[in-house]
């Protein structure tokens, strides 16, 4: 049966799953650590390692399944800065503390929460803080940037050669998007960054077929279509947008646990508690809150352990709280 290859670039793991187009069942699944390199010039994501993994995985799946299309989802707070030939700068890992060096200047320049519904976060968790630091710390290289691609769209571009932007990644605590107005923020406009983002495309729109080189490397049909792509938490929310009457809440878990309430009261968002608005695939702001649950679990239970409902009930009954969190600066008690 025809299947969709779903590429999911998480902060902890990169995955490729084959989904039966008719039933939605998972036919196959493979993963590897996403990986980050220490530098130079800063801690950055292992784009070439991930790319090699994706090509090898697609090649293996093309032998086993009829791959009818490719969909891409990836984590937020990440962008690829394209020059005339590939990356102008390595893709910054949002956990790198580099942007904190210019935090005072950025804090003066960033828009008010009322405009972006994006709280101030440490390191590079505000994409605007990344661009602010990279532009000033590496002015020559940043001057060569011809396009800024959010993380899902970078992988769609690698597959198709077509550059696009998409609202779920732009509206994910970046400081670069004004969700209520549906446009780039005053910071993005003032810095001229808005002109570096390619045209907006819907998440599910087909950017084009795979490149001939990708077809040759994977054995996929050269006509295999690739969707624009979507922010990973919003991928979890998308199936419910037309299935449930608001208000309702969807919880997406992974490296982060993100709680999204469609129909929630945006006026009650508290930036000091890491509550914010994400933007759904239709461009609408969605009340959200989150904390780094997967990372917390990894730090608390380094051997992986086995969670049980009985164990969770015991912890809740005893009133045990891990406060403050082991990952500083994020979540309601950050």
Describe the strand arrangement of the main beta sheet, using strand numbers. 3-2-1-6-14
Structural class: alpha+beta
**Strands, count:** 18
Cα shape: globular
- What does the radius of gyration come to? 20 Å
Write the layout of secondary structure elements.
Blueprint: E1 2-9, E2 13-20, E3 26-33, E4 36-37, E5 44-45, H1 47-64, E6 66-74, E7 79-82, E8 87-89, H2 103-109, H3 113-116, H4 127-137, H5 139-142, E9 147-150, H6 151-160, H7 167-170, E10 177-178, E11 183-184, H8 186-191, E12 206-209, H9 212-218, E13 225-227, E14 230-231, H10 232-237, E15 248-253, E16 257-262, E17 275-279, E18 285-291, H11 293-300, H12 309-318
Parallel strand pairs: 1-6, 6-14
Antiparallel strand pairs: 1-2, 2-3, 4-5, 7-8, 7-9, 10-11, 12-13, 15-16, 16-18, 17-18
Task: Write out key terms for the chains shown.
4-stranded antiparallel β-sheet; 28% helix; 25% strand; alpha+beta
How would you describe this structure to a colleague?
Helix content is 28%, strand content 25%. Strand 7 (79-82) and strand 8 (87-89) form a beta hairpin. The model has no long low-confidence stretch (mean pLDDT 96). The protein is an alpha+beta fold. It has helices spanning 47-64, 103-109, 113-116, 127-137, 139-142, 151-160, 167-170, 186-191, 212-218, 232-237, 293-300, 309-318, and strands at 2-9, 13-20, 26-33, 36-37, 44-45, 66-74, 79-82, 87-89, 147-150, 177-178, 183-184, 206-209, 225-227, 230-231, 248-253, 257-262, 275-279, 285-291.
């Amino acid at each position: 049966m025809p299947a969709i290859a779903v590429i999911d670039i998480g902060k902890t793991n990169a995955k490729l799953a084959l989904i039966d187009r008719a039933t939605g069942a998972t036919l196959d699944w493979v993963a590897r650590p996403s990986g980050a390199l220490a530098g130079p010039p800063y801690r950055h994501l292992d784009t070439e390692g991930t790319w090699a993994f994706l090509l090898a995985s697609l090649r293996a799946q093309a032998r086993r399944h009829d791959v009818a299309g490719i969909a891409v989802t990836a984590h937020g707070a990440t962008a690829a800065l394209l020059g005339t030939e590939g990356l102008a700068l390595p893709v910054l890992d949002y956990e790198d503390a580099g942007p904190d060096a210019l935090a005072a200047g950025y804090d003066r320049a960033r828009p008010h929460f009322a405009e972006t519904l994006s709280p101030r976060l440490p390191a590079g968790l505000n994409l605007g803080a990344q661009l602010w630091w990279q532009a000033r710390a590496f002015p020559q290289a940043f001057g060569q940037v011809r396009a800024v691609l959010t993380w899902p769209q970078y992988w769609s571009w690698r597959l198709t050669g077509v550059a696009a932007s998409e609202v779920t990644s732009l509206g994910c605590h970046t400081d670069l998007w004004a969700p209520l107005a549906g446009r780039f923020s005053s910071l993005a406009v003032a810095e001229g960054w808005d002109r570096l983002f390619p045209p907006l495309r819907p998440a599910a729109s087909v950017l084009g077929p795979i490149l001939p080189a990708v077809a040759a490397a994977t054995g996929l049909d050269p006509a295999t279509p690739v969707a624009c792509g979507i922010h990973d938490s919003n991928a979890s929310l998308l199936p419910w947008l037309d299935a449930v009457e608001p208000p309702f809440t969807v919880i997406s878990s992974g490296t982060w646990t993100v709680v999204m309430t469609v129909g929630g009261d945006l006026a009650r968002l508290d930036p000091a508690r890491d509550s914010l608005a994400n933007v759904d695939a239709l461009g609408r702001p969605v009340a959200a809150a989150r904390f780094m649950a997967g990372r917390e679990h990894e730090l608390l239970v380094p051997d992986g352990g086995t969670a049980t409902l009985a164990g969770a009930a015991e912890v809740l009954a005893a009133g045990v709280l891990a406060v403050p969190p082991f990952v500083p600066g994020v979540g309601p008690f950050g």
